[in-house]
Amino acid sequence: MSTYINSLKQWCEEVFTIYEENKPMERDNLQADKKDELHEQFVQFKESLTNEDSLDELEIYNRANELAEQLELKLKENGIPVQLTDKMRADNQNNMVPIGGHKLPPLPYSYNALEPYISQEIMRLHHDKHHQTYVDGLNKAEREMQKARITNNFQLIKHWEREAAFHGAGHYLHTIFWNIMSPDGGGKPSGNLLMEINRSFGSFDKFKKHFSEAANNVEGVGWAILVWSPRAHRLEILQAEKHQNLSQWDVIPLLVLDVWEHAYYLQYKNERKKYVDNWWKVVNWPEVEKRFDTAQRVTWQPF
Ligand SMILES: [Fe+2]
């Protein structure tokens, strides 16, 4: 918490300087003494950060974002394009992608690097348009779910969970996809991975055949995916239709609640809500904590 607040304070200083250097000059003498309202709001925000005990991280982040957007707009109106919100997102949470702060990762090679196998035209459209749409959609869904938590209004939660799954799966899978291809690619893996492929599938050729068949037989749109199962200690090949079934790939489940009817119907009949309320009384938090601690050891570059 205090690291977050400290970095926010630093961000305030930086944004303040940028704003002061660029803000529109008052030409009208009569207006010269009139206080700049946004400037005032910003000063107040900065002061509020000193009272650490009563601070809610979500609210602070939201308020900072709101102010940054207003400042950006004001500067833009005066022909000064400054990306303060991006700056805040990049500066403030080190390795964490803040809520609504996902970004399109750059391609690790040029658009035409995979030719003749994948054309430049496809790469441009696929990366710049399609992947960007997933990033934007995920950011929107995350912000809307944050808004629901703050306002305690969960009326549209089903919709935004779907959006988060669809766009989140799209963003994470494409982020992997660009990086697991290379103009110098092809051939076979080596080392541990090859050993594990041999152990899990019999041979590299058997794996390749299985993976290709899985890909060819995805119904409609989707993906073929090689996964490591930390439970089975084996590799497996899966298909994803579209790219989600209300879930995201590249995430690790920590706390799960079975709401199939077989999990509660004998006792609760149609009263799922009662079952869910009671379920909280039997959650084994030390096990969830253990899963969380282990899961945190897997880290990819944030986007
Ligand atoms: Fe795609």
Automatic annotation (TrEMBL):
Enzyme class: oxidoreductase
UniProt GO molecular function: metal ion binding; superoxide dismutase activity
Keywords annotated in UniProt: Metal-binding, Oxidoreductase
Domain of life: Bacteria
The Manganese/iron superoxide dismutase N-terminal domain, residue ranges: 102-182
Domain (Manganese/iron superoxide dismutase C-terminal): residue spans on this chain: 189-291
Pfam families in alphabetical order: Sod_Fe_C, Sod_Fe_N
Record EC number: 1.15.1.1
Coiled-coil intervals: none
Similarity annotation: Belongs to the iron/manganese superoxide dismutase family.
PANTHER family: SUPEROXIDE DISMUTASE 2 (PTHR11404), SUPEROXIDE DISMUTASE [MN], MITOCHONDRIAL (PTHR11404:SF6)
Protein name per Swiss-Prot or TrEMBL: superoxide dismutase
Native source species: Perspicuibacillus lycopersici
Source lineage: Bacteria, Bacillati, Bacillota, Bacilli, Bacillales
